[in-house]
Write a structure and sequence with these properties.
The protein is of the alpha+beta class. The protein is 40% helix and 15% strand. It has an eight-stranded antiparallel β-sheet with strand order 1-2-3-7-8-6-5-4. Strands 9, 10, 11 and 12 form a four-stranded antiparallel β-sheet that branches. A two-stranded parallel sheet has the order 13-14. Helix 11 crosses helix 16 and helix 11 packs antiparallel against helix 17.
Length: 500
């Protein structure tokens, strides 16, 4: 059957509700069974700084044809959450034979990629049921666009919204995912998720809220497409996790060298030394760190982790600790500027980067699918992460204050949030409230003189220290804003009034 492809940059003519009510540039297709499908590059966030490769990555995802003979679909049957890996099989043993790949290579689980030319994307849908690992696909879209609004150093992957014929998803992916995961006793959560997915696709009414998983007409399943690149950090960044899942491991996370440095009230250089000294007293951290951690590495980590904490607070992320990745880069100084190049095991360094270049790990925030839902546990909030920060980036602070002001006045950014992502009203209200609370916490730290605006890792790389930035403010006006925000939080205003 010939597929129909349309490119649209406006709202759909068909009324959309709940999670498929997303706005952006659309590529519309029909499946071989005649079911309408959409891939949407969400509208750009006002005031955001997008990277030069973002458009390229978005376009690459929207150009993927699930039904091309050079494309194979395989279930993600490892880790805790389900997903669909999209492979390029234009070359190799299974070239042009997706049916054979999906029947034979997919049985290898994660090893299926060895039989493909490349993996093009990961498709992930929402899954929130007892016995499964909580995931909300829209969360990845929120992290992508808001990270660009804050112009963050931490690398958050590009994500686009996508729908797929549910019956073809069932026959090509879900049933296979259920069967393969069932053979692995260690994949209980993954297997249960596939069981729920198969049941839901066969009878969409069994999954509620139905719109979280299916399009309005129930003909297609929807989620996000993205790529996860990077290696997993050890306890030096992810924490020891010795206190178990939940609040315990989130407190362990705050005992890592970079977080301890963020908690220090000393100037940046001294804070880094303090964080390294205290953090490496933990034998697990000192033993598992492959090499000594340099002050330059710490400067980048501090900036990145402060950004992660802010996003996780705003979006009520409940599954961050243990899920932070990195990619290695060569760093050096050339003509007074910091230069870098992605480091790969197979590349020859000589002649490509200077001999005195150093390797730094840059943080990749890939796993962002457990935020955005009202019922998710906000561990950044409940364990007081923002309150403990004593170092922050001035530009991020300004953007947060602007975002909070816009949300309060229900301005352009509030309209963007409420109309672009397909969020329910309660989900929008929670993000708005969390933004207000985050702004209030950091504003209070600043007013008491407890927040240093010195997280400029590039400047630190060049000079070994950073001159703190001073943000002018009207103290009376900012106290009024803080008290106004406290009206929404019982007990906070009384506590503020006790202050001298």
């Amino acid at each position: 059957m010939k597929r129909l492809i349309l490119f649209i940059s406006t709202l759909s003519i068909v009324p959309l509700t709940a999670s498929d009510r997303v706005i952006g540039d659309e590529v519309r297709t029909t499946s071989p069974k005649g079911v309408p499908e959409r891939c949407v590059r969400l509208a750009r966030m006002p005031g955001a700084t997008y990277r030069k490769d973002d458009s390229k990555d978005e376009q690459a995802y929207t150009s993927i044809n699930f039904y091309d003979p050079s494309v194979a679909l395989s279930p993600k049957t490892w880790s805790t959450s389900p997903g669909m890996v999209v492979y390029d099989i234009s070359e190799g043993l299974f070239a042009g034979a997706p049916d054979r790949f999906e029947k034979e290579a997919s049985q290898k689980g994660k090893g299926a990629g060895e039989f493909a030319k490349d993996d093009l994307a990961l498709f992930k849908c929402t899954m929130n049921r007892e016995g499964t690992s909580a995931t909300f696909s829209t969360s990845s879209l929120l992290y992508y666009h808001f990270s660009r609004y804050f112009d963050m150093e931490v690398r958050v992957p590009v994500a686009v919204w996508r729908s797929m014929d549910k019956d073809l998803y069932l026959s090509r992916v879900a049933r296979s995912g259920l069967e393969i995961s069932g053979r692995n006793p260690a994949a209980k959560m993954n297997h249960e998720a596939w069981r729920v997915l198969v049941e839901a696709v066969e009878n969409p009414g069994t999954y509620t809220p139905t719109n979280d998983l299916f399009t309005t007409d129930r003909s297609a399943i929807h989620g996000v497409m993205l790529s996860n690149r990077g290696e997993r950090y050890g306890p030096e960044v992810n924490g020891t996790r010795q206190s178990g899942w939940g609040a315990g491991q989130n407190r362990d996370f705050q005992e890592t060298p970079p977080f301890l440095a963020l908690r220090s009230g000393a100037p940046l250089k001294e804070a880094i030394a303090e964080g390294l000294g205290k953090g490496q007293q933990d034998s697990q951290i000192s033993n598992e760190a492959a090499e000594s951690i340099s002050p330059r590495q710490m400067a980048y980590w501090m900036r990145e982790i402060s950004e992660i904490v802010l996003l996780d607070f705003i979006f009520s992320q409940q599954d961050r600790v243990g899920n932070i990745d990195f990619a290695p880069y060569h760093y050096w100084v050339e003509a007074g500027e910091v230069k870098r190049k992605r480091a790969k095991e197979s590349e020859t360094v000589e002649g490509e980067v200077p001999k005195d270049a150093i390797i730094l790990k840059r943080t990749m925030l890939n796993d962002n699918d457990a935020g955005g839902k009202v019922q998710f546990a906000n561990f950044a909030k409940s364990t007081g992460m923002l309150e403990k920060l004593r170092h922050f980036h001035a530009g991020t602070y300004r953007q947060l204050m602007a975002l909070d002001a816009d949300f309060r006045s229900q301005g352009l950014l509030h309209h963007y949030l409420s109309s672009t992502f397909g969020l329910e009203d309660a989900e929008v209200r929670q993000i708005v409230k969390n933004t207000s609370l985050a702004a209030g916490i950091l504003r209070e730290s600043r007013l008491w003189g407890d927040l240093r605006f010195d997280l400029d890792p590039e400047r630190f790389f060049l000079e070994g220290e950073v001159e703190e930035e001073v943000i002018p403010f009207n103290e009376a006006e900012e106290w009024e804003l803080l008290f106004r925000a406290a009206e929404e939080s019982p007990g906070v205003k009384e506590e503020l009034q006790k202050q001298p």
